[in-house]
């Protein structure tokens, strides 16, 4: 057990390439991240492939710790999930985004939407849809401006999932399936649940220009979404060749480094609201 512990410890340090010496310390710093004002949100534009227009962004959480520096979400989100801290962080992100949407709407940008990642724990909270509804009311934001991104891993219990999704649908927020195709659920949930958008996972977009299997999978998902009357977004688009293939396949939107990295709200406003 000792050896395994050490191996894990070493692996963790290498992967981190930052200086949190262990998970426990990271967790204790994460616990104070909100009050220490260390969290912020970056936004990545989603580009309409037909028109080139941008009217939606994905909100991505960022953490810059005062002592140990920047920590990527791939490192702190799993620890937030395990410890339950994700509930506070998730609420914080949702509130910040609603505040941002309120600002846009007050300036007349009613057609702009922000998508928020919802962790499985957050989604499974009984109060989740009430929280969303109360935030929209508090900030006087129209529900279509808010999108919730849910992964297949959150949909473990069918009745529970259906109840939450139906409540969200009734409120009027946009519902998307994140990382589509990477989970274990069956396709039948696409007909059972009120889903508006499918996000094709970036693992299927990578190498789409050379890898015939990935190209076939991506095109099939696009077709499937269209046949079901859903919107489809390709994630992780990095090359013009990939854009061309997605356009050809009539994919609605794309998101990725080819268009833009996730950027600060100031940058979003300077670039897209000028
Ligand atoms: P995700 O939801 O699948 O988000 C997409 C990730 O891909 C983001 O990483 C984004 O920066 C990155 N990305 C965007 N375009 C490209 C590209 O062209 N190439 C490549 N290689 N990557 C690209 P990020 O921001 O590091 O976030 C990682 C994951 O952390 C997210 O994956 C999501 O699962 C989680 N996450 C981030 N913010 C939140 C949050 O507020 N709440 C929750 N629950 N999870 C979050
Ligand atoms: Ca996402
Ligand atoms: Ca994703
Ligand atoms: Ca992902």
In N-to-C order, the SSE pattern is HHEEEHHEHHEHEHEHHEHEH
Average pLDDT: 92
What is the terminal-to-terminal distance?
58 Å
pLDDT under 50 segments (min length 5)? 1-16
Strand order across the largest sheet: 1-2-4-5-6-7-8-9
User: Mind summarizing the main beta sheet?
Assistant: 8 strands, mixed, barrel
What small molecules are bound in this structure?
ligand C2E, calcium ion
- Indicate the structural class: alpha/beta
How many whole angstroms does the radius of gyration measure? 19 Å
**General form:** globular
Organism: Paenisporosarcina cavernae
Protein name: Phosphodiesterase
What does it look like?
This protein is of the alpha/beta class and 274 residues long. Helix content is 46%, strand content 20%. A hairpin with a 5-residue loop joins strand 1 and strand 2. Helix 2 crosses helix 3 and helix 6 (128-138) packs parallel to helix 7 (158-171). The longest helix is centred in the middle third of the chain and has 21 residues, at 86-106. The model is unreliable at 1-16 (pLDDT under 50). The site of one calcium ion (CA) has 5 residues, from strand 6. It comes from Paenisporosarcina cavernae. Residues 23-274 form the EAL domain.
